[in-house]
Amino acid sequence: MRPSALIPALLCAGALVLSFLCLFAGQKKGFMENYHLLTLNTSRIGYNIINTTSENSNNPLTNLFNNITDSLGNELNDVAGDIAEALGIDDFYSVHILDYCYGDYTPGPVANSTLKQSSIHKNVTGCSNRTAMYEFNVTRILEQALNDSGVDVTLGDLNWPDDIQKGIDGLNALFKAQFVLYCIAIGFIAIALLSSLWGLFPSGRLTACCNFMVSLLAFLAIGLASALVTAVIVKGSDVINKYGKEIGIESHKGGKFMALTWAATGLMFLVILDWIFEFCIGHRKHKAATYTKHG
Ligand SMILES: *[C@@H]1O[C@H](CO)[C@@H](O)[C@H](O)[C@H]1NC(C)=O
Ligand SMILES: *[C@@H]1O[C@H](CO)[C@@H](O)[C@H](O)[C@H]1NC(C)=O
Ligand SMILES: *[C@@H]1O[C@H](CO)[C@@H](O)[C@H](O)[C@H]1NC(C)=O
Ligand SMILES: *[C@@H]1O[C@H](CO)[C@@H](O)[C@H](O)[C@H]1NC(C)=O
Ligand SMILES: *[C@@H]1O[C@H](CO)[C@@H](O)[C@H](O)[C@H]1NC(C)=O
């Protein structure tokens, strides 16, 4: 019996739970919504363009804009939130591993003198169907929203930059791979968990060694998944912020998701250290046993 093997078993169990949460966060409305990979803030889409084209009546946006201002009789600033709404576009689109969700910021999308940034919350309207390895295509999602709303505005009218989708397309292979990597990581962590339970019984160095190997594989798998997902988050946000700025969309990085996935990786690292320690202890005990036998 090796009660100290309980520690790596518990650490593995923790890592397993965290990895499952990474995979399933946001998989349905309101379930760990803030653990998104990235959130596209489209609440001010078209704001800049409307500002510059409000005299140019060729752009269908102008009519839409005039209608909104007429009906509200308001300053552009107050109307801004309503542009996305009038276009049928949601305030935000948050990307998760298995789906994306959309909805509106409540009470309003932009902080002002009475509304603090920290008191703005996401109100999720719905989520896409859960799909393993879906392709995140912002252009198609927004086009669909514009079509469904029936307004006579296209993404072209909004000066939608093609570079955004090009940048995201470059990441889609990685984006799809991360689902597979999380599944592999979860598999290895589960094996490492079973293996450390097995390590509870015989106390030879062989079990410590096998456990070390298995947990090393699990660590590499979850580490690779975390590195990849971090790359997708950082690169994706950079691309969207770089090209989206001029049409009023921005991307927020999923800090909480990164914390979750790296915490799982950290736990598996501790498991490895633990098994190295067990191996050395086993080594010392073995030596001591040999000395007493022969000495
Ligand atoms: C909108 O236009 C006004 C006047 O033309 C300008 O002062 C303001 O900075 C513009 N706002 C944006 C966000 O471009
Ligand atoms: C701040 O924003 C909220 C929500 O959009 C709005 O109800 C409120 O009137 C705004 N306050 C000011 C001072 O603009
Ligand atoms: C959404 O984006 C706009 C500008 O693009 C920004 O002013 C606003 O603070 C953002 N809203 C949230 C909730 O982050
Ligand atoms: C969230 O949105 C729904 C409609 O989609 C609305 O009925 C509800 O009041 C909103 N919740 C908050 C807190 O604004
Ligand atoms: C989502 O799934 C439902 C049934 O499960 C289906 O009716 C619907 O068309 C799907 N939606 C999309 C966008 O694929």
Automatic annotation (TrEMBL):
<dbReference type="GO" id="GO:0031505">
    <property type="term" value="P:fungal-type cell wall organization"/>
</dbReference>
<feature type="transmembrane region" description="Helical">
    <location>
        <begin position="257"/>
        <end position="277"/>
    </location>
</feature>
<dbReference type="Pfam" id="PF06687">
    <property type="entry name" value="SUR7"/>
</dbReference>
<feature type="transmembrane region" description="Helical">
    <location>
        <begin position="213"/>
        <end position="236"/>
    </location>
</feature>
<dbReference type="InterPro" id="IPR052413">
    <property type="entry name" value="SUR7_domain"/>
</dbReference>
<protein>
    <submittedName>
        <fullName>Integral membrane protein-like protein</fullName>
    </submittedName>
</protein>
<keyword id="KW-0812">Transmembrane</keyword>
<keyword id="KW-0472">Membrane</keyword>
<keyword id="KW-1133">Transmembrane helix</keyword>
<feature type="transmembrane region" description="Helical">
    <location>
        <begin position="6"/>
        <end position="26"/>
    </location>
</feature>
<dbReference type="GO" id="GO:0005886">
    <property type="term" value="C:plasma membrane"/>
</dbReference>
<feature type="transmembrane region" description="Helical">
    <location>
        <begin position="179"/>
        <end position="201"/>
    </location>
</feature>
<dbReference type="GO" id="GO:0051285">
    <property type="term" value="C:cell cortex of cell tip"/>
</dbReference>
<dbReference type="InterPro" id="IPR009571">
    <property type="entry name" value="SUR7/Rim9-like_fungi"/>
</dbReference>
